[in-house]
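Following up on my earlier thread - several people asked me to post the actual chain instead of describing it. Fair enough. Here it is, all 307 residues.
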Amino acid sequence: MSARDYIMIALAVTFYGFGFSAFILPEGVVIGGVTGLGTIVYFLTGNPYAIGATQFVVNFLLLTAAWFIVGRQFVFKTLWGVACITVVTTILPQYFPEPLVPGEPFMNIIIGSLMAGIALGIVFIHNGSTGGTDIVAAIVAKKSTTSIGRTMLYVDFFIIGSSYLIFHQIATVVYGYIVLFVVSYMVDTMININRQSVQFFIVSRKWDRIANAVNTHAHRGVTVIDGQGWYTKQSIKILLIVCKKIESVTIFRIVQSIDPHAFITQGQVNGVYGEGFDTIKAKRDQELQHVLECENEESSENTLGHS
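Reply from S.P.:
Thanks for posting it. Predicted structure:
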């Protein structure tokens, strides 16, 4: 991770801690993850440092197990986020004995959940983790075929549901599940926004200058396609460019600077995989892979036979 990633993770975790401490915790709601376990300990003991202490102890034990099961690279990647959330959940809850919106529990839950979800989304975007159920899920995924997302959901449901056995208040359990739903939704939204990509088709007489500028200044690849204008019956060059949505302004500025009369179309694309974008995460079909390998061998034999 870069220095920017570390800074953004620290800021995001602080934002998460504020949303949790100022809106959710004062309402007596137990959420998922290690933070939820710490909340239970906090309510049982009344110790203001219980949440941070629980974060530290549980994450230490989980990271120790992950070191041997998942690998040290995963542990190093998770340490910074764990350290930040331990500090934040130790300090901030002491400053918010009452919710910031008095007498409005549902509003507090929604506001806190939105803040927590946005914060965790930023953490994941910057290749970070806050530990807890993330570590459990990684360990389970290493040893079984259960998906990481499903494991996290099971663990969080169990933690939130167990709070009823302690406090016997169905309302707070329902609020806990609302937090889980809103946080999960916001995390997915943040990640999907970051992954949104657009596709440009650009027709210009100065296509070569535009292509060079996109390579140099936008750091994106360009595919040059041969075409023909049917009205003029002249050969033309069409530039195909795929980039992140947030980079589209840079492409427009480049084209505007070089050829204000260029013809441009921009469309949103769902899923871009390859260098500079996402990697394909679908599981391999062993039977299909075997068939393809056999076809490649037959093709190679036929080639050698003809030569």
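The mean pLDDT is 83. That should answer part of your original question.
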